[in-house]
Amino acid sequence: MSDAIDAFRAQTGASDANIADLTTFLAMLTEANEVMNLVGPDTLPDFWNRHAWDSAQLLDLAPEAKTWADLGAGAGFPGVVLAILLKGRPGAHVWLVDSLGKRCRFLQTIVDALQLPATVVNGRAEEQAIAVDVVTARAVAAMEKLLGYAQPYFQRGAKGLFLKGEKAEAELKEARRVWQFEAELAVSRSDPRGRIVSLRGLRRVR
């Protein structure tokens, strides 16, 4: 585990306080995961790369961004990781949006325990009126549906950074039947099979 933490620290420049918060988050997630289906239990041993670094890499793609909305925040990826790493930065805030009450209660427990600059929103993502620099999501829905959830955030000036898998390019092709946008794909630094979709200028075409 120490090697994984050292690698994460080297990749992100995380402070001792960041590592302490992430370690507490991992412990609380592991405990909650025994009674809730938050993440695949077999992924927890690889927490530092599979979940923490996968989430944290977004900060390098939007270094000036202070406000983020994580749609379908679920287990807290990427939103809780972003809030931990942004903690103490003036003006930084993360909205953790999820429609399921029990997941929101878990997220609120994390936010309170770690005193994070974050607000948990229990509701449908597309019904929120939140203005942020970046809207993000991981493992929520295919791009066509996800962009419907994210549209109100784009309308308020956000850019999109979405963590996707190997089918990202095919999902974007499908999404263009309904949406017009500018998109770039980057290879995930935590898993070369993954992709990060950077998206702007969203509008519905029909």
UniProtKB/TrEMBL annotation:
It is an enzyme of class 2 (transferase). Its EC number is 2.1.1.170. It is found in: Cytoplasm. GO terms for molecular function: rRNA (guanine-N7-)-methyltransferase activity. GO terms for cellular component: cytosol. Gene3D superfamilies: Vaccinia Virus protein VP39. SUPFAM superfamilies: S-adenosyl-L-methionine-dependent methyltransferases. Keywords: Cytoplasm, Methyltransferase, rRNA processing, S-adenosyl-L-methionine, Transferase. InterPro entries: rRNA_ssu_MeTfrase_G, SAM-dependent_MTases_sf. It comes from the Bacteria. It catalyses: guanosine(527) in 16S rRNA + S-adenosyl-L-methionine = N(7)-methylguanosine(527) in 16S rRNA + S-adenosyl-L-homocysteine. Belongs to the methyltransferase superfamily. RNA methyltransferase RsmG family. Specifically methylates the N7 position of guanine in position 527 of 16S rRNA. This is Ribosomal RNA small subunit methyltransferase G. It comes from Brevundimonas naejangsanensis.
